[in-house]
Design brief:
2 copies of one chain form a homodimer. Chain A is of the alpha/beta class. Chain A is built from 13 helices and 12 strands. A 6-stranded parallel beta sheet of chain A has the order 2-1-3-4-5-11, sandwiched between helices. A 4-stranded parallel beta sheet of chain A has the order 7-6-8-9, sandwiched between helices. Chain A binds a DNA duplex through residues 1, 7-14, 17, 19-23, 26, 41-51.
DNA sequence: ATGAAAGCGCTAACAC
DNA sequence: GTGTTAGCGCTTTCAT
């Protein structure tokens, strides 16, 4: 390429990057040659030299969780706006895999990492390792407090759910969640317990923990029904669980919201499609993704470290929790 | 690293890769040093030298379409099994963006591309460009016939849907789809027309094309209802559309399946959650993703070019299409 | 079996 | 302004 244009490789680089002024003639000659040869710089070589690959890694616990694709989409879009590519990894909610993935990403010399740690405790070593080497932003879930984070205020959102239900006249609650050690699960549970305690101490203990799945929702619902002590409202830690619960309630002849109110969390597409439509907590997913990408690239002038970006979640009230 | 072990860099490389026999002593010394220094090879430098980055690009039209996350997950898993990383790109169903993404991936010297072309015609140039440089596998959607493909037999699946509905006694149909120029949309439509023609020529023309969204399903359903000529079955090109249709039918006091049968396509989580549960076409997403990854890596010994891998889709019959 | 040396394709000093 | 040169961190001849 350099010789095709009859100039030095250095000049080619300068022309293509505008790093330094170049004589118009040489410039033109270079550009012409680039055009003619359909020249495209080898980013691998660039990366080796400049120590910047133009790639950002992202580690999420489960790509198939409808929550993440939207965030991923926003991340990828924002990264591309800055000329960066997304290296996506799914940890399968496994701390070991997760650590492995982080190491692999570091080997690839990614310019930064968006990390959604699957365990608020055990994910720490991997998180520390990565944060020590590249800009890192925790997204949705978090494991340490002195590294940038972006997500919604989980506790605030769950508190809002309960307060709304109380305002609807509910006094006795049950909470269906997962045993997941993700920060989000922990925060939602804490808020549930804390808020519910004010109106009924026993409800604060009525917690069913399994997994974030339809099936667990079904199992938990059966258990609740079998106990023969239906609460006024069943609060779920996410939409899948809530829909599993709904399925069983329906097949047991119990009506939502007539016999029991029901709420989910995340406001995935499932929530609006369900019948009756499910009251849920809507998160600004695009905003979360975009902000995460911005932070990790240091694009907004703020260094990623330390900053905490809490967005407001919005309680989306639908039929499943409307007293009639 | 080389000097830390007191050996030549060449030896280090040979030990770490087992490329050639190395004296046990040196081997041990090298390994010890690697351990001690926590040495991890720089993949960028490796890539520059070996011309293989250990990354594979994937271009999909819309990450948020619930169809893709599962495929992506399977792809990523299989890639990792082979030590490769996934560079994920969302074309947003835009041919221009798509071409840009492909160029960018090539710049990054990915080892292969998994490509879901958004337009069976206009996506060709980008596809050709990429296929000329790296192993390429078309996934789910396709644009050319002489490059590897993996997906389900769309026409066969849609034919099965119609034949099943005919067996249920349906004679008059309407088809709700998208104007998308994706191969999948085209193939499903063709199969609809072809199969339906046998029982009612007019139904073959009764096609409503908008977008693959809930909203379009709603709009189309209103149109169908307003025409005051309800068919026996409304066949939808995907689940979202079908659920939009369902929503409107319900609010208009029409009952599924009592007044009209309804089918979707893709069997996303939405289908089983809907009320009534939606009959849909289930695709082996994990298998598609896994096979795509295998092919693009040349992992199964088969070169990617030319081979066509059609999987069988399975008609999932649920309440929305059961005559009672 | 091992080391020296070249070189992957680029950019950044450094000279002119 | 421009070219020459060194070197990013590896792997791979090529000698030995």
């Amino acid at each position: 390429m350099a010789e095709a244009a009859g100039v030095s490789p250095a000049t080619v680089s300068r022309v293509l990057h505008g790093t330094r002024p170049v004589h118009p003639d040489l410039r033109a000659r270079t550009l012409a040659a680039a055009q003619r040869l359909n020249y495209r710089a080898n980013r691998v070589a660039q990366a080796l030299r400049t120590r910047s690959t133009g790639t950002v890694g992202m580690v999420v616990p489960n790509v198939a969780n409808p929550f993440f694709p939207v965030v991923i989409q926003a991340v990828e879009k924002e990264l591309r706006r800055h000329g960066a590519q997304l290296l996506l990894c799914d940890s399968g909610d496994d701390v070991g895999e997760e650590a492995e993935l982080v190491r692999s990403l570091l080997d690839h010399r990614i310019d930064g990492i968006l990390f959604s740690p699957c365990d608020q405790l055990s994910s720490r070593p991997a998180l520390r390792l990565a944060a020590a080497r590249v800009p890192l932003v925790q997204i949705d879930r978090r494991a340490v407090s002195d590294v940038a984070y972006v997500g919604v205020d989980q506790e605030g959102a769950m508190r809002e759910v309960i307060e709304y239900l109380i305002a609807q006249g509910c006094q006795r609650f049950a909470y269906v969640s997962s045993t997941s050690r993700a920060s989000t699960a922990a925060e939602r549970l804490r808020a549930y317990r804390h808020t519910v305690r004010g109106v009924d101490a026993r409800s604060a203990q009525r917690v069913y923990q399994g997994s974030f799945s339809l099936d667990w929702g079904r199992v938990a619902a059966k258990q609740i029904v079998d106990e023969g002590d239906l609460p006024d409202a069943i609060v779920c830690a996410n939409d899948s669980v809530a829909l599993g619960v709904l399925d069983v309630l329906r097949s047991q002849g119990l009506r939502v919201p007539d016999d029991v109110l029901l709420t989910g969390f995340d406001d995935t597409e499932l929530a609006s499609i369900a019948w009756p439509p499910l009251t849920s907590v809507h998160q600004p997913l695009e905003m979360i993704g975009r902000k995460g990408a911005e932070l990790v690239l240091g694009a907004d002038g703020v260094v990623a470290g330390r900053s905490v970006n809490l967005f407001k979640a919005e309680l989306k009230i639908r039929e499943s929790s409307r007293r009639r």
